[in-house]
Write a structure and sequence with these properties.
The chain is of the alpha/beta class and about 180 residues long. The protein is built from nine helices and seven strands. InterPro entries: ActR_PrrA_rreg (IPR047772), Bact_response_regulator (IPR050595), CheY-like_superfamily (IPR011006), Sig_transdc_resp-reg_receiver (IPR001789).
């Protein structure tokens, strides 16, 4: 890690990572550790609230939807316990309404999954006067669409008919999309 990144992070490099996707959480923790942060992992809202109450971190990356509740509850608690905490909210359910709600209660930034560790770091370290730089390798529109379809498919317990109904598309069209490889 270079000295400029360490200087930007500051002396308190504690980072709460709250996500119920364990493989993603582990990868992100390793990547953020390499960037100079001291990550603490949590997989539930309850764990996140406990960490926020007992040892509020300087930085946080919080998933919006968790199995036991809403990540915004943890964001609110972090704001109460540590007003200077820089918080990025991550979600696979990107919507303007949730982005506005997250920022209103104190999130520094709001990003859609899958998010790159560099993009998350840039968002955490951006000052309030400057915007973080745009992502180096943003997902193509086709990839975003594919990711959304895959997520809805998984949430519908891999039921093609139910997924097609919720996405308002023909079942055969959905089957063709699911049979193809993911776009770049």
């Amino acid at each position: 890690m270079d000295d400029t990144a360490a200087a930007e992070i500051g002396e308190d490099n504690t980072l709460l990572l709250l996500d119920d996707d364990e493989p993603f959480l582990r990868r992100l923790a390793r990547a953020m550790e390499k960037r100079g942060f001291a990550p603490v992992e949590a997989g539930t809202v309850a764990e996140g609230r406990t960490i926020a109450a007992t040892r509020p971190p300087a930085y946080a990356v919080v998933d919006l939807r968790l199995e036991d509740g809403n990540g915004l509850d943890v964001v609110e608690m972090l704001r109460e316990k540590r007003p200077d905490c820089r918080i990025v909210v991550l979600t696979g359910y990107g919507a303007i309404a949730t982005a506005v709600a997250a920022v209103k209660i104190g999130a520094t930034d709001y990003m859609s999954k899958p998010a790159d560790a560099n993009d998350i770091t840039n968002a955490l370290l951006a000052t309030s006067e400057e915007k973080p730089p745009p992502p180096e390798n943003p997902m193509s529109a086709d990839r975003v669409r594919w990711e959304h379809i895959q997520r809805v498919f998984e949430l519908c317990d891999r039921n093609v008919s139910e997924t097609a109904r919720r996405l308002n598309m023909h079942r055969r069209t959905l089957q063709r999309i699911l049979a193809k490889r993911s776009p770049r």
